[in-house]
Amino acid sequence: MENKSEKLPGGKRRDLLLEWLLEADKPLTGKELASRTKVSRQVIVQDISLLKAKNHPILATSQGYIMIPEPDQKMVRKQIACFHSSDLAVTEEELNSIVDQGARVIDVSIEHPFYGDITASLMLSNRSDIRRFIQSLQETSAPLLSELTDGTHMHTIEAPSSRVIEDVERALLEKQFLLT
After folding, report:
1. DSSP secondary-structure letter at 137?
2. Are residues 112 and 118 in contact, defined by beta-carbon separation less than 8 angstroms?
């Protein structure tokens, strides 16, 4: 029987990382994966980079690592332009307005005057995801990307139908978050 306090060899560790990511129903943090494998978080970052280089569809989100699901041909995607203050309560209200209509927030992006387009994966599907995202922002004191553009940003959203996308746009327009 294997000693649980020993570090796992690289190949076996990466196989386990893939297995855990495939089985996970939520993002797995680098810290959690490091603890499970008895290595540093930096080793996990390197392992994930190696796995990505071998074309494993892993995505680093603000909540942790996930396997990118196969594209669902039935889903509709649209990028929408939004604007609001950097207050986290307002951000939470905006994101809840999207998921409450049945859509998923895939990412957030800005157009930076120097760097060009900057995109960050979010993968937020429900209020619980959003609470964890907001809590993480609070704990790290990380600024929102939209702070670089005085509140203007884009979201890629995904929904089961165009009607849901229209409902999202209507909800955001009512709250004056949607740029038109």
Report:
1. H
2. yes
Q: For the segment 122-131, what is each residue's pLDDT rounded down to a tens digit? A: 999 999 999 9
- 150 in the Ramachandran plot: left (φ > 0), alpha (ψ -120 to 50) or beta? left
In DSSP terms, 79 is beta-bridged to 156
Contact present, 74 and 161 (Cβ < 8 Å): no
Q: pLDDT by residue (tens digit) across 27-79?
A: 899 999 999 999 999 999 999 999 988 888 888 887 889 887 766 668 899 99
Question: What pTM value is reported for the model?
Answer: 0.71
**Per residue in 94-116, is it b (16+ CB within 10 Å) or e — as a string?**
bbbbbbebebbbbbbbbeeeeee
